Amino acid sequence: MKGSNLGEFEEIVLLIVGIAGEEAYGLAIMELIKEQAGRSTTIGAVHAVLSRLEEKGLLNSKLGGATKERGGRRKRIFEITTAGRKALELSRDLRVNLWEQYAIKTV
Question: 76 has which bridge partners?
Fold first, then answer.
């Protein structure tokens, strides 16, 4: 695995891929980010993060079937790897730990 540290947008994209399941392709991911996180983004930004996460070994991709709606083009479907799940767990655990420490200090 090249690296498991996640930026905020990388973490969101990884989580959205997990939520989307078999529908985890570029445009669907972009739409779910808007719906779930309330963030507008571009398809280029989504594809850049998907590529980076795949390079890190946190995602795998495969080509789906061609469809008439896409002019015969195939979708690239993404799925989280075991390393991707582990990176999400580490990110969550870090945040929870920091929030707990913050809560203690602000009481």
Answer: 63
Burial of 25 (0-12, 13-18, 19+ CB in 10 A): buried
Among 3.30.300.30, 3.40.50.300, 1.10.8.60, 1.10.10.10, what is the CATH number of 8-105?
A: 1.10.10.10
Prediction pTM value = 0.86
Q: Judge residue 78's burial from the number of C-beta atoms within 10 Å of its C-beta, 0-12 exposed, 13-18 middle, 19 or more buried.
A: buried
pLDDT tens for the chain, 107 residues long, are: 455 689 999 999 999 999 999 999 999 999 999 999 999 999 999 999 999 999 999 999 999 877 777 667 889 999 999 999 999 999 999 999 999 999 998 87
The whole-angstrom separation of Cα 64 and Cα 106 is 50
Cβ–Cβ < 8 Å for 29, 8: no
